[in-house]
Amino acid sequence: MHRISKGAALLAPVLILVLAVSVLLAASSPALAARKKAKPGAGQGVSKGAGAQLLCPAEAGLGEPFVVRVRSSKAFSSATVSFLKRSAPLEVRRVAGEGGKAPVIWEAVALVGTDVLGTATGQKEILVRLGKGRTLRAVIHIRRVKRPTESLDLSPEMVNPPASELPRIAAERAQAQAVLAMTSPKLLFRLPFTRPVPGELSSMYGIGRVLNGQPRAPHRGLDLEAEVGQPVVAAADGRVVLVGDFYYAGRCIYVDHGQGVFSMYFHLSEQRVENGQKVSAGAVIGLAGATGRSTRSHLHFGVSTLGRLVDPAPLFGYDALP
Ligand SMILES: [Zn+2]
């Protein structure tokens, strides 16, 4: 959730390795390739029934987000997606069929994914309930993704927070979890996401962390290079739901994009939005910094779908969501 480093000199080779590995992973990721070519019904996990189709990729890597789409020639007034014991209501839209002549189709789209922490690989079921009666099911294979491990030697107080801070840390974690568990039915975001800062990736999602020889939770966001005071923009349209100053995250902003999708911006030097404020993709919401548990200025950018912290990186290149 945060970047900790003991010095640029030591970190530089690690960063180069991380970047090289992340480029390789991106180039060789079958899920990414599949997503780029993804056409409804073409080699995907398709579930049909009662004039409706549920479309999702046949597989995705652990930690990767993916799009689930339900289409029906019969009208449905509501839809709910369920994945890994979490659910969210979906916005139902009427869209014209292909070629203009085809009949109107009802559609709902969800962005879901798995968390590198706490999710097992293997076959996972996705359910979409339409209205009161129809339920569509699809199965996605979640495969293991090889990700590197980063070992850092830090001063002990950087690795283990003082006991006096533990209640504060627990309260902040509970506050963040409560926010990320919210589900508002309106789909506010579009894909691809806007990059919140232009800086290079300095630590990828899912990288294993060993601090002073102790294995720690993997990194569940992206660290992007950013100078103190550099503008940070919203990745997508949404509504600000948390403006905090947390022990780990420092000055932070959480934006709700609807349907259980949130983006998070950590270690800011300044917040330029208020709780409840609507934001547009690309609008400045704060300035980058090194607040919280961070030894150098950068932006930690996180994305949560149905309460799972997923890899934000694919969302910058994902096909546009209509
Ligand atoms: Zn980070």
Superfamily at the CATH H level of the largest domain?
Glucose Permease (Domain IIA)
* Broad structural category: mainly beta
H/E element string? HHEEEEEEEEEEEHHEEEEEEEEEEEEE
How many separate domains? Answer: 2
Shape: globular
Distance N terminus to C terminus?
31 Å
C-alpha Rg, in Å?
20 Å
- Write down the overall mean pLDDT: 84
Which residues sit in consecutive blocks of at least 5 with pLDDT less than 50? 1-43
Largest sheet: 8 strands, antiparallel
How many DSSP H or I helices? 4
Structural account:
With 322 residues, the chain is mainly beta. It folds into 2 domains: 38-143, Immunoglobulin-like, CATH 2.60.40; 149-316, Distorted Sandwich (Glucose Permease (Domain IIA)), CATH 2.70.70. Helices cover 15% and strands 39% of the residues. The chain is built from 4 helices and 24 strands. It has helices at residues 8-28, 30-37, 156-159, 166-180; strands at 45-49, 52-56, 59-61, 65-72, 79-83, 86-90, 93-95, 105-113, 122-130, 134-143, 149-152, 201-203, 208-211, 214-216, 222-225, 231-233, 238-246, 250-256, 261-268, 270-271, 278-279, 284-287, 298-305, 308-310. The strands form 5 sheets. Strands 12, 15, 17, 18, 19, 21, 23 and 24 form an 8-stranded antiparallel beta sheet that branches. Strand 9 (122-130) and strand 10 (134-143) form a beta hairpin.
